[in-house]
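Structure ticket #2291
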Amino acid sequence: MKQEERRQQTIRLLVDTTRELIKEKGCHSITMQDIMGRSGLSKGAIFHYVKSKNEIFVWVLQEGLEDTNKRFMNEVEQGRRNFDEPMQKIKESIVTYENPHNVTNKVLLYLLGKEEEPAVAEALKQYYERSVYLSKVWIETGQLHGVIPKTVEAEKTAEMFVMMTFGLRVRSSIPYTHAAFKAQDVTEFIIDILSPAADGTREQKDEVM
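Resolution: structure written out below.
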């Protein structure tokens, strides 16, 4: 087996193992010993790739984002030339952000409490920037195919959407919170901003004014 294949298999095993442990125990209770025992990997095999469990948590967090991007792009690559199918993949992702048991939510909130560690701080920065970048790519892809108006300012709109979803994820960790503005409302708000019909409404308002 080639070195890169071995590396990918080891990372896959570590991510899958850690995901399952998070579901069972939460982030704070997991130890490297737990990960070693469940994965069957030796200490040396694990520490060849990571220095701490937090680095594995970062992989788990990043995978959730990349999975959403992959599902969105799959819809585009299948020749979708309308707004609905690719947007459905984004909506599905946003709904999970409201779930307090969502693994990536748990990991994000855990890592936000470890921001004093330089490696974690850098990982969080990269994760946020990657989230904004992919949101911008999704918007620009829609604009390229004529299903999102060119008038939408991709970069600022992308960052606004990321800020909103981060808010959903933080709120999911607060017990007994009454939510008047839910994930479904967030998706409807996003659709209103991105849909061509909304652009037409704005143009009509401008003409009236």
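Closing remark: The mean pLDDT is 88.
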